[in-house]
Design brief:
InterPro entries: Homeodomain-like_sf, HTH-type_TetR-like_transc_reg, HTH_TetR, Tet_transcr_reg_TetR-rel_C_sf, TetR_SbtR-like_C
CATH topology of one domain: Tetracycline Repressor, domain 2
Number of helices: 8
GO molecular function: DNA-binding transcription factor activity; transcription cis-regulatory region binding
Helix content: 55-70%
Shape: elongated
Oligomer: single chain
Keywords: DNA-binding, Transcription, Transcription regulation
Protein name: TetR/AcrR family transcriptional regulator
CATH superfamily of one domain: Tetracycline Repressor, domain 2
Organism: Streptomonospora mangrovi
Structural class: mainly alpha
Distance between the termini: 80 Å
Radius of gyration: 20 Å
CATH architecture of one domain: Orthogonal Bundle
Low-confidence stretches: 119-128
Length: 195
């Protein structure tokens, strides 16, 4: 009787702890650099801020585009996860405002990413579609809006996707300073105040 042959496919390798730390440090440094914008995204500067050599950067992210895309994806996932965490820690209206502050940082990172790649729009072959992203963001803040409607701190007749579009329309198209961002977000919050 013949013994069953073992699969020849290698088991997926886990990253070593130091490699994972380096990757995380590179992503954090890239996200900070993209949020600063100014069109001066430098791989060398990202590696320096992360405390690693340029070779380590290239082992994790073989191209500029790979690093920028990974930083953007991490920013999106953090933004989506923040809504639930904020609702656990804050009253609904405050949680929504804190999430909108996070959204403003996301908008800055997105503009920085476009500058870094010198693109006018995200390449749809590599990026999730805009409508899908909008829906994911709307799903993330739906519980916050529902809790605010329940306690009377937010309008009950507002759809989450409308809030996302309102914030995106206020923050995405142009580069604004911190004071103007705060004014724009206060206007968004005023629009969500119960009548």
């Amino acid at each position: 009787m013949q013994q069953p042959r073992e699969s020849s496919a290698p088991a997926p390798r886990r990253r070593r702890a130091d490699a994972e730390r380096n990757r995380r440090a590179l992503l954090d440094a890239a996200r900070a650099a993209l949020a600063e914008g100014e069109g001066s995204f430098s791989l060398e500067a990202v590696a320096r801020v992360a405390g690693v050599g340029i070779g380590t950067l290239y082992r994790h992210f073989p191209t500029r585009e790979a690093l920028v895309t990974a930083a953007y994806d991490a920013e999106v996932e953090d933004l989506l996860a923040q809504a639930g965490r904020l609702l656990e820690a804050l009253p609904p209206r405050e949680a929504l405002r804190a999430w909108l502050d996070q959204f403003a940082r996301f908008a800055a990172t997105k503009r920085g990413m476009l500058d870094a790649l010198r693109l006018d729009v995200l390449d749809s072959a590599r990026r999730p579609d805009v409508a899908g992203m909008r829906e994911r963001m709307a799903a993330a803040i739906t519980p916050v809006l529902a809790a605010g409607a329940g306690d009377g701190s937010l309008r009950a007749d507002v759809r989450a996707v409308d809030v996302v579009l309102l914030a995106a329309g206020a923050l995405m198209p142009i580069r604004v300073d911190a004071a103007q961002t705060d004014r724009l977000l206060r206007l968004v919050m005023d629009a969500l105040r119960p009548t």
